Amino acid sequence: MADTARPARLRYTATQQALHWITAALVLAVLPLAWIAESLARDAPAKGTMFVLHKSVGLTILAIVIARIVWRMIHPAPPHPATPAALTILGRLNHGLLYAIFLVMPVSGYLLSALAGRDTPYFWLFTVPGLAKDEALQPIFKQVHLVGQWAVYALVVLHVLATAWHVAIRRDGLHERMLPAQKPQA
Questions:
Q1: What tens digit of pLDDT does each residue of 54-111 get?
Q2: Would you state the pLDDT for residue 157?
Q3: What is the mean pLDDT of the chain?
Q4: Which pLDDT belongs to residue 186?
Q5: Are 40 and 52 spatial neighbours (Cβ–Cβ below 8 Å)?
Q6: Domain boundaries, the chain
Q7: Beta bridge mates, 121
């Protein structure tokens, strides 16, 4: 049965929706893994496990975001419902910055570890090799990764607040583009 709430062409594809929500779940997982790892004593047995999980989730985010970018090039975003041009530009800017930071963070995290001469295990399935130790470059990527986390917090909060604003104040149905089509009630 057809979706009566909003025509399918005004929604993101099912693949885009799935990749969006998987990315959101992974971002919600990667952050506390880092916080927990950093809070543990240097010799705590769980510290290494938390960092392996953090790095593995980060690399997964990288792969998914690359897939999202490729998919988006093939399947452009659906049109915005009647939204002022300035708001559309702000939304696109936030999305572009989210994509950018979700690329920068895993790459800087990998380089932070790799330039310390460490390999990066991926969920204990295989290892991404480290690079030659570079004490000049490694602190740069550490700083990028540390500052980048604040960009993640700010951009994600802005994204969520903008969504809430569209739902509660504008009531324009913009958020429905990222939700699965609803079956009409019988």
A1: 999 999 999 999 999 999 999 998 888 788 889 889 999 999 999 999 999 999 999 9
A2: 98
A3: 92
A4: 56
A5: no
A6: 8-178
A7: 127
Between helix 14-39 and helix 45-74 the angle, nearest 10°, is 160
Question: Would you give the end-to-end CA distance of the chain in angstroms?
Answer: 11
In the numeric block, the tokens 């500052």 are attached to 147
Q: What is the mean pLDDT of residues 114-131?
A: 97
Q: What CA–CA distance (Å, rounded) separates 115 from 52?
A: 16
CATH code for the part of the protein at 8-178: 1.20.950.20
pLDDT of residue 7: 46
Q: For the CA atoms of the chain, what is the radius of gyration?
A: 19
SS3 per-residue string spanning the chain: CCCCCCCHHHCCCHHHHHHHHHHHHHHHHHHHHHHHHHHCCCCCHHHHHHHHHHHHHHHHHHHHHHHHHHHHHHCCCCCCCCCCHHHHHHHHHHHHHHHHHHHHHHHHHHHHHHCCCCCEEECCCEEECCCCCCCCCHHHHHHHHHHHHHHHHHHHHHHHHHHHHHHHHHCCCHHHHHCCCCCCCC
Tens digits of per-residue pLDDT, 129-152? 999 999 999 999 999 999 999 999
